Amino acid sequence: MYQLRESLVVIEPGYEADKLVYHVWMMEDGVPKTFQKLFTISCHSPYVSSFVVRGFRKTGEPLIVLQTHPGSGSTYVLAAYEPYSKSVTNLGINVRKALYYHVYSYMETLLLL
Asked: Could you tell me the pTM of the whole model?
């Protein structure tokens, strides 16, 4: 997988066949204005009404929040998206209220401030 946490990555929303998708682009070798399209995130299911990309795991897999269809109330699910198989793995963090998940990355260092 790519070193997305060590590169400048752009997540571009778009539409394909009237469905929301996110295109993931990475800057090539630190050259400004030169980006390579890595993959497109598409998460369409009869059980999902919307989704948004929140960040990336160390492995490069995108972390997404899925919103299920409202019935007795929407459920928001934090999941990992595998871009090659296009499979979605529920990470077991589900909420019923419209709360936002925030994902932050950090880099371990021995440098003392």
From this structure: 0.76
In whole angstroms, what is the distance from residue 72 CA to residue 26 CA? 40
The CA-atom distances, in angstroms, between 109 and each of 7, 59, 105, 106, 113 are 18, 19, 13, 9, 10
Per-residue pLDDT of the chain in tens (113 residues, 90 and over written 9)? 566 666 788 889 999 888 899 999 988 877 777 899 999 998 877 778 888 888 888 888 899 988 887 665 778 888 999 988 989 999 988 877 656 666 666 666 666 65
Give the residue carrying structure tokens 């009404």: 49
For residue 85, what are the CA distances in angstroms to 31, 51, 61, 72? Answer: 30, 18, 11, 32
